[in-house]
Amino acid sequence: MKKKIIFMIINMNVGGTEKALLNMIEEIPKEKFEITILMLEKYGDFLSSIPSEVKVEYINHYQNMKEILNNPPHKTALKFLKVGKFIKAFNILFSHLLTKVCKDRSIFFKNILRKIPEINNEYDIAVAYAGPMDFISYFVVNKIKAKKKIQWIHFDVTKIGFDKHFASKIYTKFDEIFVVSNEARQKFISLVPTLKNKAQVFSNIVSTELIRREVKKGEGFNDNYDGLRLLTVGRLTSEKGQDIAIRVLARLINEGYNVKWYCVGEGSMRQKYEVMIEQMDLKDHFILLGSNPNPYPYIQQCDIYVQPSRHEGYCITLAEARCLNIPIVTTDFTGAREQIMNGKTGLIVDINENDIYLGVKKLLDNQDLRNEFTYNLTKEIQDAKDHIKKIYNLA
């Protein structure tokens, strides 16, 4: 009989967490596991990428809860008061106040979910995959019946709004806590040392078969450019560092380099970046390609892959560039040194404009070094089987 595993996530927006989930599902043998993805909302360009044999379910009434979860409680309560929903307003304010006094966000979630029943099915493994997202962690612990429960940590918890008080209480109810890199695990333990024995490393999986299949489907660059192409893939947000990339490119263009920098991704900083690109006269050189659930043809066709992030947990786009044997320049964020051998398979530089500039310039000037990195990457073995065994052993 197949083991039943359920992964809970926010949605299937184009992002590293969602892509990591698709990669892992690709590697899980379907003859052994019946897989379900439970989402808070039906949204995202990766929805069409979910394999047909995977069950997809959604949380009923999440849209009614979304505003309460995402907006300041006093504003939500005021909105309910204006339309005469006095009991709802009181419940929100009271549970929020109690949460603050007790330093326990579970009280707030319990109030929001008090009328939501448990999921009907029982699973062998339930995974709070969109971690750390407190609401999903609470939901998996309290609303899903499973023999084993896993909390997944995808980020450097010292760089985000991580509630260590909530984690110290709720995470104890998980059987395992998977963290995507050794360095990210150490930072997690530094905030919640009582969970040290439960936390283990489970790096994001890159499915070579999936990537090779997707490369053949896409088109990639179509601008007939004959210079060198730099590429960055990721959401257009401050943490991903595209603003640094724009300034680096301006310096390279001023020095006469025949180069274009392309960015695959969409996000809240697009308008700001467009203004920067215009001000620095880079409209023909720094190209925002927008969101694309299949960036692999672009990665395969670029000359240098650059990851200018300010922070990451385990950068899956970096792993994908490695998988396609592309010369890499990356900043020294959490987990970078677990993927790149500096000077052997890529360059690791400090997180600032000048060091990124020097790293990119070094690879632009040295084709032999680019070729060496490509050759060394072809010798790497990226095998997901050992990681997948950690899931088998739980089932």
Provide a count of the helices.
Answer: 16
Through-space gap between termini? 12 Å
Strand line-up in the sheet with most strands? 3-2-1-4-5-6-7
Number of domains: 2
Strand content: 15-25%
**CATH fold descriptor of the largest domain:** Rossmann fold
Shape: globular
Weakly predicted, low-confidence segments: none
Helix-strand category = alpha/beta
Supply the CATH class of the largest domain: Alpha Beta
The appropriate CATH architecture of the largest domain is: 3-Layer(aba) Sandwich
Mean pLDDT: 92
Entry summary:
With about 400 residues, the chain is of the alpha/beta class. It has 16 helices and 13 strands.
Protein described:
- With 395 residues, the chain is an alpha/beta fold.
- The protein folds into 2 domains: 3-206 and 387-394, Rossmann fold (3-Layer(aba) Sandwich), CATH 3.40.50.2000; 220-378, Glycogen Phosphorylase B (Rossmann fold, 3-Layer(aba) Sandwich).
- It is 42% helix and 17% strand.
- It contains 16 helices and 13 strands.
- It has a 7-stranded parallel β-sheet, sandwiched between helices.
- The longest helix has 17 residues, at 86-102.
- It is globular, with a radius of gyration of 22 Å.
- The mean pLDDT is 92.
Question: SSE layout and pairings?
Answer:
Layout lengths: L2 E7 L6 H12 L5 E7 L15 E4 L3 H9 L2 H10 L3 H17 L3 H7 L9 E7 L5 H10 L1 E9 L10 H7 L5 E4 L2 H10 L7 E3 L6 H10 L10 E6 L8 H13 L4 E6 L5 H10 L6 E5 L5 H6 L2 E4 L8 H8 L4 E4 L15 E3 L3 H13 L1 H12 L6 H10 L1
Parallel strand pairs: 1-2, 1-4, 2-3, 4-5, 5-6, 6-7, 8-9, 8-11, 9-10, 11-12, 12-13
